[in-house]
Amino acid sequence: MLYKSFKLQQIQISSRVFILGIWFLSFLLVSPIQIWSISSTPVSLLDSANFAYSKRNFQKSSEYYAGIISLGYESPEVYFNLGNAYYKLDKIGMSVLNYERAKKFSPQDEDINFNLKLANQHTLDKIEPAPKLFLEEWWSNLKKMHSEKTWGIRSIVCFALFFFFLGIFITSRKLINKQFGFWLGLIFFSFSVISFSITKSRHYDITNKNYAVILSSSAEIKNSPADTGIKLFILHEGAKVSATEINGEWVKIGLSSEKVGWVKRSSIEFI
After folding, report:
1. Does domain 8-120 have CATH number 1.10.3110.10?
2. Do residues 75 and 12 make contact, with C-beta atoms less than 8 angstroms apart?
3. End-to-end Cα, the chain, rounded Å
4. Has domain 211-270 been given CATH number 2.30.30.40?
5. How far is CA 24 from CA 28, 151, 152, in A?
6. Dist CA 21 CA 270 (whole Å)
7. With 50 as the cut, is the pLDDT of residue 170 above it?
8. What percentage of the chain reaches a pLDDT higher than 90?
9. What angle do CA 61, 65, 71 make, to 5 degrees?
10. Exposure check for the chain: N or C terminus, fewer CB within 10 A?
11. What confidence category does residue 44 fall into, taking pLDDT thresholds of 50, 70 and 90?
12. What is the mean pLDDT of the chain?
């Protein structure tokens, strides 16, 4: 079971890149990624969590890592180590949940993907993801190449370069310089638009709760959001499902377009 050691400065509120209005105003109003100043409370929680884990006190370690998250500090490393602690406690559902949350922030991390695969081997329901179309798969892989923060920074840098070459195009008197400024400006503007689109999509992936993990040992999936509904099938702890609708204490979940139903909200936790 792999484990991540990290410095406290790496614990941060998940990145937010706000680009408002037209491109010119958005460039001026882009909010930098904020690294929160760390108070003594999360510092002590982190030290306690790492110490408890090193002493194999995984129950205490999980409580401390969860405490850091409850204070508003999120990072893939915190979720990853929390997943490790739950895995050691044989709480497979909570382990899968936190590995999946870590993966939302860092989908290409080999350690996260390895431990998630290891945890999934202990689940009873072997659910294969639905195949994606080529363009959908390509877009998904492109987004995963870098973090939301990195794509946001690239968008800003490319937009700044666009303005630089736009200035060359406007102010230069030589035709070759005008052509140089025009084409490079167009290229960097295109890169900025693409990076911005990916940033928005990555932000949506991180903040949206379209998936959930079954946490109860077994959960009955029914054909309607009511106790009187007909039981369709049963899912077990650790199963990852899509969550498309909430109706009171019931959530509509799906494994595929043909296999959908309703499960009690108390049986799942959103990723």
Report:
1. no
2. yes
3. 22
4. yes
5. 7, 18, 15
6. 32
7. yes
8. 66
9. 145
10. N
11. confident
12. 85
Residue with tokens 């790492």: 50
Residue with tokens 């909430």: 246
What HEC string does the chain produce?
CCCCCCCHHHCECCCCCCCCCCHHHHHHHCCCCCCCCCCHHHHHHHHHHHHHHHCCCHHHHHHHHHHHHHCCCECHHHHHHHHHHHHHCCCHHHHHHHHHHHHHHCCCCHHHHHHHHHHHCCCCCCCCCCCCCHHHHHHHHHHHCCCHHHHHHHHHHHHHHHHHHHHHHHHCCCHHHHHHHHHHHHHHHHHHHHHHHHHHHHHHHHHCCCEEEECCCEEEEECCCCCCCCEEEEEECCCEEEEEEEECCEEEEECCCCCEEEEEHHHEEEC
Q: How confident is the model at residue 2, as a pLDDT? A: 61
